[in-house]
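RETRY 2/3 - previous attempt timed out on the joint model. Re-submitting the same 585-residue input unchanged.
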Amino acid sequence: MSAVLDNRLKDKAAALANAPRKATNTLEPAWVRYALIAVALVFLTLFLFVPLVAVFTEALKKGWDTYKEAVIDPDALSAIRLTFIAAGIAVPLNLVFGVAAAWTIAKFDFPGKSILLSLIDLPFSVSPVIAGLIYVLLFGSQGWFGPWLMDHDIKILFAVPGIVLATIFVTFPFVARELIPLMQAQGSEEEEAALVLGASGWKTFFKVTLPNIKWGLLYGVILCNARAMGEFGAVSVVSGHIRGETNTMPLQVEILYNEYNFTAAFAIASLLALLALVTLAVKTFIEWRMHQAQKASVQHHTTEH
Amino acid sequence: MTTLLSRNSANRVIPGFGLSLGFTIFYLALLVLIPLSAIFLKTFTMSWDAFVSAVTSPRVMASYRLSFGAALIGAAINVVFGGIVAWVLVRYQFPGKRFVDALVDLPFALPTAVAGITLTSLYSSNGWIGKHLEPLGIKVAFTPLGVVIALTFIGLPFVVRTVQPVLEDAERELEEAAASLGASPWQTFTRVILPSVVPALLTGFALAFARATGEYGSVIFIAGNMPMISEITPLFIITKLEQYDYTGATAIAVVMLLVSFLLLLAINLLQAWARKRAGK
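RETRY 2/3 succeeded.
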């Protein structure tokens, strides 16, 4: 998924940067054009816009007060807290991993590099339910480490650590997937210059590499965060669904919905939908920034020569 | 020669190879490879006959048919409409285009549980869309058709986002040349444009299909989850887990994982083919 996104980001930036041709003289007749636009808009309205509007309408159906009550309910607040805890641990860990993996793959050549790349992508092709199942097999009472954990009174499954682990697994490739193509495209010349001039490795990373990759990094982080906060399947398997303790926001939505408490379910869902909208807005902003940067560097190069 | 030099010096000058490679492999092994291997090792504790009967029981077979069938239909719908959306976004100007372009990624950003309950409320018999379909005799919520709707939603961005960059890069000159040589717009479309986007369309199709086969959150609310009729394979794994049949759940998971790996391989081959076609 992210591979698609970052390819698109790169291609889009490149296409926008070196193609000022905005030729609107299309070959097809006008009625074909309007018909295609109409088909596309009807399809997107039906599948994207109507559901988006429906979330907020359903949430506010019984008025603002009911909405507020549903959101400040103690179980809802505890679900919100747990969601932030899980994302707060998973995203930074995957961020550090993403930077380390991108540094390894973009700056060095070594045997087995393409295998490493495919392995990093692996969690994207695993069903969320299976992502949860693997932790049940490891830490469940019949699992590999189950008996040992029981003896030492450590709870991983049906507790917060299990939720964090499942979240890390499903969001594993996001940051790495954004950074690897970006750092590969940027090359190592600037770092080499800094190092030759006597900067230390860490200083080179923080002063040279990090400023160069900051937008790509942020892009990966917001996508990673959106998935971390919204993950349902994997977390559902390992959570145990204990109200007020091991329910994240998406799980709380499910419980309320299954109790026919639709307004409250949609109230929590509307918070997650807001998160999705913010994610899309930030993402669009970053794409615009990267396109600006690319355009600037293209102009810079053309004036140079 | 310069590339040779800089590559050599890069390997000498840039520090941190051992640290970053070591950390990458450690983290990958600890959080992904070892846990995933548990699935396969657990399966090896089963006899072959037990494995076969666990993964071919009538109820599992019905769930495969639904999961893979609905994923196929959803991905096919997305190829047609996603292709049109990509075309319209690249080639035409209309008010609100940037908003529409950003909205395409909504299924990536919206948590699946939210998508699930929303689609269910829209398509149930008193929902905004469902109440118009009900008089026509079309039931969507709590039927296999609901599964198709949810999987279409989930796969929507994949085709658009793989086709869009290809269309942006497409050389308009070729189309103009075809037209000036007397080709009709339809001929230009089928002979010039379509061949150049077919690899991207197929890649998008495979990505949407792969995502849809494993999808859980957005489907379970709208599906109705009736065994043999509207029960998807991931849900059946959960049912097995709730019955404490860990080996049975794991056996089905292995089948799904193998299908995912095959799809991943197919996608990689398709992308390599697409790159070759694009001459990159």
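Confidence is low (pLDDT under 50) at residues 1-10 of chain B. Closing ticket.
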